[in-house]
Structure formats: structure tokens, C-alpha cells
Amino acid sequence: MLTGKRVVVTGGTGSFGQVLVRRLLEGTAGLPEEIVVFSRSEATQHSMRLAFQERQVATDEIVYEENRHHRLHFHIGDVSNYPAVCSVLRNADVVFHAAALKQVPTAEYHPFEAVRTNIVGAENIVQAIREHDFKIETVVGVSTDKACKPVNVMGMTKAIQERILAQAALDCPGTRFLLARYGNVLASRGSVIPVFNQQIRTGGPLTVTTPEMTRFLLSLNDAVDIVFAALRDGYSGETWIPRVPAARMVDIAAALIGDREIEVKITGIRPGEKIHEVLVSEEEAARTYDRGDYLTIEPILPELRPEDPPGKPFEGREYSSGTDLIDLDGATALMRRHGLMPDDEPVDVK
Asked: I want to staple 139 with a disulfide (CB 3.0 to 4.6 A). Which of 95, 221, 253, 262 is the partner?
């Protein structure tokens, strides 16, 4: 799919972005001619540059070596800055838009910063394509369960981002716009599992917000697989959803604790937090189709819907982490399979 393409990854220094870039370099979907990581942090770009070249320390020459010799390049910029977005997109063929202000409490305390990054950033990409007639083949927007039935600033802004990218299929018919929406990612930045393990290693207590809380559970590689599946088979305006296991967080906590004598402390729900993750709402279910490992939500705009969507109609119900839960044994097996038990070595994002 990507052989010989010029690929831009916004937010490419994040947990998802780093795994996506590594998979791109491995040629999972074909080996691109060039991969550009676009983000606003010089420090995280430099750390990623060193990690991907497997160096512990480096002088400034590493930047010049990158520009001369390597397939992977780094571009400093902010998606909320329109000229910076135009600069990085002008030669792109495919864009993976993963840049986001994604921590729920942070967005509650800084709502307009979430608007600038999550909403204005997406609009800048669309505006750049529309106004400059960039020949970009596909844009894949990375979304979140919190965009479905949003109750917090982060979810509200990501919900608008989804609509901006889907509507862009009307304004920019030469570009295919796709969305990948998924829930909690194991061991990513902001995931609770590394926090649990650190609390266990220091003797506890282990803090759980509420006994009823559930979460979908998928790995970073699973998240990349969703994006590649959408890229391979998606229609413009579609939203792709993974079918993945879900568990109560108290069962995840118990699986990690095992036989240890560690207290579990209930701390209460944080600002803007949901008890259950929802990936498909009741309203969306009527235009959702089952495609095996994935569900696809057809666009809300009727002009964008295919006459005969692939797959079979979904059950017509909400798809929530509060149903079809794995038990304690299943949670333990899942943690072991992904190397996330407290005694395991820390998970490397690569």
C-alpha cells in the first residue's frame, strides 16, 4: 500500500506514532520512500532519532546525517500552526494524523488548547489540501472512544475532529479521508497499567478509581493494525473500530497483584472520566457494519455513504466495554501475553 510513498505522521513522537513509524520502516504495508515525523517537541524528536538509530549519545551531526542519508526525517512544527502544516504536507502522499492533546484531566483544565490541537489541527490539514491542491491520496485520522458520546473536553474535541475529517471528503474529493477509533492502549503513555506496576513494585497501595470501571484492551501494534486495515479497505468518511477484549479494571489490578499482599485503594473518578468506554453508540449502530475483526461506521453525511457497504449490519446496539467482559483468568493471561506483569521487563514501544 505504501511502497514508494511519501508519508507524514503528525504526532509521530507519541507512543502510537513511534510504533507506527517502526512498522512503516519494517515495510509492513510496503516500504515508503520517505517518512516524516511532524511534532512540536524538539526533545522527544531527538530522543526518538537516537532510539531509531540505536545510539545512546550523539552530537549535532546526527541531524545532518539524517537529512543526507536516511529514509526517516523529523520536522518541528505544531498542527495548530497553518503555515507549518502546509510546509510539511506539500510533498506528502499519505498522512497519518495522530497529533492530539489526549489526557482527559489536562484537557479539562486547558480546554482551548485541546480545541487548538484537536480541532484546529485537523482543519489546518483539510484547509492545506483544499487551498493548495496538494495531491495527497489518503489521510487517516486517529481518534478515540472518548469521541463517542463525549462527556469530557478531550472527547468533545475529538468528536469534532472526526466530523471535520469526514466532511472533508466532500470538499477534497481527490483525497480519501478515513478514521480509526479505538480505546485504551496497553502500556501507552497515559495508560494505567504502567502506573499499577510501579505502585506494585513500591509496595502499594494500588489505586483504582471505581470498582465498576471497565476498559477495552489492545496493544500498540493492534492500534497500528487498525490504521493499516482502514488504509487498505476503507471508503472515504468511514470510521474503523477494532473488536477487542474488555475487562474490569479491578480484575486487571488483581491480575497484576497476583499473590502479593498489596492494598487496593478506591480513589474516585477523575474529572471528565467515563466508567465504560463506548466505541459505537446506539445512534451510530444503525449505520455500522461487521467486517470480522473490525466494525465500520458509515459517515453521517448521506452523500458519502456507499450504496452497498461491505460486511453485514451490526447488531444495532451500543458497543461498550461494559459488556462481554473477560474474567480474572482472562485478564491474567492477557497481561502475561503482552509482557505486562510487574516482574516483566518494561515494554519497549518498538
From this structure: 95
In single-letter form, the type of residue at position 136 comes to I
Q: What is the pLDDT of residue 270?
A: 78
- Judging by DSSP bridges, how do beta strands 239-242 and 294-297 pair with one another? antiparallel
Q: CA dist 148 to 132, 284, 313, 322, Å?
A: 32, 9, 19, 14
Using DSSP's 3-state secondary structure scheme, residue 114 falls into: helix
* Domain presence at residue 269: no
In this prediction, residues 116-122 reach a mean pLDDT of: 98
Instruction: Locate 254 and state its grid cell.
Output: 488483581
Which candidate in 5, 102, 135, 146 is catalytic?
146
Q: What are phi and psi of 71, to 5 degrees?
A: -75, -30
pTM: 0.90
* Residue 63 in this model has a pLDDT that exceeds 80: no
The amino acid occupying position 167 is Q
- Between CA 154 and CA 147 the distance in angstroms is 8
Q: Which position has the grid cell 497484576?
A: 256
Please report whether residue 339 resides in a domain.
no
Q: What domain range is 161 assigned to?
A: 6-183+219-243+279-318
Cα separation, 258 vs 298, whole angstroms: 43
Domain count, the chain: 1
Digit-coded pLDDT (tens) for 189-232: 667 888 999 999 999 999 999 999 999 999 999 999 999 999 99
CATH of the domain at 43: 3.40.50.720
